[in-house]
Structure formats: structure tokens, C-alpha cells
Specification:
By secondary structure, the chain is mainly alpha-helical. One of its GO terms (cellular component) is plasma membrane.
Length: 324
């Protein structure tokens, strides 16, 4: 009798959750990903083939890394519009260093540091200059892109390095090395955000800067740190991109910026700060990649793909109004 009562209670509890809009807002990315997988697999059995899964995960690796960096910034109620340009700058600096025969290791360090410096400048201007993050990162978007073009003279640099290319060709089962690196980044970010003092201070800064300052938290240092982290991860994204395409390209791809913000929104991170998650943006990135990949397999014109992504993001943003 007790078990029957307990089961009835559990059923009522789940029924209430399913009727709660806030529940769907919390799990929008995961539910959307599951639905997309079911629909695309039904329409094209090749969608879940091992080769296509590996391809999607490799494509998702760069976006996951960028989305994690964007999450740190957005959790403080900021935004980094320069993340794609910082990635381009990092790629170009890597290419120039590699061409100058610095060696792979030093070239990687140079590329990541260049992007991190762009993030550091964003943080300094936002925290100490007290300039709106939107304006600062918008300016850096243009500045980093221009600097990349100047350094490279507008010419891509072909990179043929077996060790670097292994990131895109090597794999463990269906999981490419690039994707495994992205997962490692996400795990470290989760630990930092939810199991360290820095993460607590970061969320407090996003929730209420005034209260955080009153508690003795240096909100300026937190903001400088998160923009630097975003830049550093953009530099890592640059290395993964070079490994994938085999070249350091000076042309900035704005889709990385838009999709990084989209993944964070889909993942349920509050755009008003103070509330963050890492697994959400990771799932959001996988959802966006699955959406584009599925539409491509179905032969849908590339002209319609940005439209589909935009609709999904707007719906996700609408759902965030109901988050608890």
C-alpha cells in the first residue's frame, strides 16, 4: 500500500513538472537535442552512422571551447563580441610563429597568448576603464580582425604538421582528439565554476556587483579574469581550427561568435548574470552542430540553415523568461 502511495506521489510530481514551463526552460537544450536526433535519424539513417557522429563531434569541439569561455563572461552579466576575432588573431600569430620556425610548442603558446592578451585588454577596459562591455568587445572585434590582416598581409598560412593534424585525424572510437580536449576543458571549467572560491566570486559578481563588493570581492579582478579566460580559450579554439582546416586563416568567421552566444543561451545561462552552467552550453553547442549537420544531410540549402539556427535561439531565449 505504501509503495502504491509512493508511486502515485511520484507520478503526480512528474506530471506537475511536465506542466511547469520552468522545467522545460531548464532542460530545453537537452530535450531539443534528443528531438533533433530522433527526427534526423528517422529522415536519414546516415545521421547516426559512426562516421557522421565523429564528424559532428569534431565540428562541435571548437564551438564547445568558445561557448565555455563565453559562459564565464556572460555569468558576470557581460558579453564577449570579440571572441571569434581573438580566435582569428591567435591563429594568425600561430601561423607567423610557425613560419618563422619557432617550433610547434612555442607557436601554440604564442597563438594562445595573443588571444589571451586581447581578452585581457577587454577586461582592463571594462573593469578599470568602466566602459560598457558591449562597446569594448565590439571595438576589439574590429581591432583584432584588423591586426590579424596586417600581420598576415591578408594571406592564409598553410600548416602541415603531423602532430597538430593528429588533433583532427586521431580518435578513440567515435571521439576525435579535438572533442576529447573540448570535454576536458568543460570538466575543468565546471570544477572552477562550482568548486572553487573564484567560481563563487564570479557568480556573486554576476548576481549583484554591489553586494559582491560589500562582501570584499574584487569584482574588477573577476571581470579581468573572465575576459582573459575567454581570450585564452579563443586561442585554444584557434589551434583546434588550424588542426581541422590545415591553415591559419586571417578572415574572421562571425558564425563562431553568434553560435557561441547561441550555445550559451540554449544552455540556460542567464544573460543577466549570477547563474551559470557548463553542461548546458556544451549540450547547446551539440544541438547547433546537430541541427546544421542534419539539415545538410537532408539537402536543405545553406541559405536556410542560419534561419533555422536563429529561430531555435530565439525560442530558447523566450524560454529563459520562465527559468526558476
Amino acid at each position: 500500500m505504501a509503495n502504491a502511495t509512493l508511486s502515485a506521489h511520484d507520478a503526480e510530481s512528474w506530471s506537475a513538472k511536465l506542466k511547469d514551463t520552468g522545467f522545460w526552460a531548464e532542460w530545453a537544450a537537452l530535450v531539443g537535442l534528443v528531438v533533433l536526433v530522433i527526427v534526423f535519424q528517422a529522415l536519414n539513417p546516415a545521421f547516426l552512422s559512426p562516421g557522421n557522429i565523429t564528424s559532428m563531434l569534431l565540428a562541435a569541439a571548437i564551438l564547445i571551447v568558445l561557448a565555455v569561455g563565453q559562459t564565464f563572461v556572460i555569468a558576470t552579466a557581460g558579453i564577449d563580441l570579440s571572441i571569434a576575432s581573438a580566435m582569428t588573431l591567435g591563429a594568425v600569430v600561430f601561423g607567423q610563429a610557425y613560419t618563422a620556425q619557432w617550433g610547434l610548442a612555442l607557436s601554440c603558446v604564442a597563438g594562445v597568448l595573443a588571444a589571451a592578451v586581447a581578452g585581457l585588454v577587454n577586461g582592463l577596459l571594462t573593469a578599470w576603464g568602466k566602459i560598457a562591455d558591449f562597446i569594448v568587445t565590439l571595438g576589439m572585434l574590429s581591432a583584432a580582425s584588423g591586426l590579424a590582416l596586417i600581420l598576415s598581409d591578408g594571406k592564409p598560412v598553410t600548416i602541415i604538421d603531423p602532430a597538430l593534424l593528429t588533433l583532427s585525424t586521431g580518435r578513440a572510437g567515435v571521439f576525435g582528439y579535438s572533442f576529447l580536449i573540448a570535454v576536458a576543458v568543460a570538466i575543468v571549467a565546471h570544477v572552477v565554476l562550482f568548486h572553487t572560491r573564484f567560481g563563487t566570486h564570479l557568480l556573486a559578481t554576476g548576481g549583484s556587483p554591489e553586494s559582491a563588493n560589500a562582501m570584499g570581492i574584487s569584482t574588477r579582478r573577476i571581470k579581468i579574469a573572465v575576459y582573459t579566460i575567454s581570450g585564452m580559450l579563443a586561442g585554444l579554439g584557434a589551434l583546434l581550427l588550424i588542426a581541422r582546416v590545415g591553415a591559419a586563416e586571417p578572415a574572421s568567421n562571425t558564425s563562431f561568435l553568434l553560435n557561441s552566444v547561441a550555445a550559451v543561451v540554449l544552455g540556460g545561462v542567464s544573460l543577466f548574470g549570477g547563474r551559470g552552467t557548463i553542461i548546458g552550453p556544451v549540450i547547446g553547442a551539440l544541438l547547433l552542430i546537430a541541427l546544421v549537420n542534419g539539415l545538410t544531410l537532408l539537402g536543405v540549402s545553406q541559405f536556410y540553415q542560419p534561419l533555422a539556427v536563429g529561430v531555435v535561439v530565439v525560442l530558447a531565449a523566450l524560454l529563459t523568461r520562465f527559468q526558476r
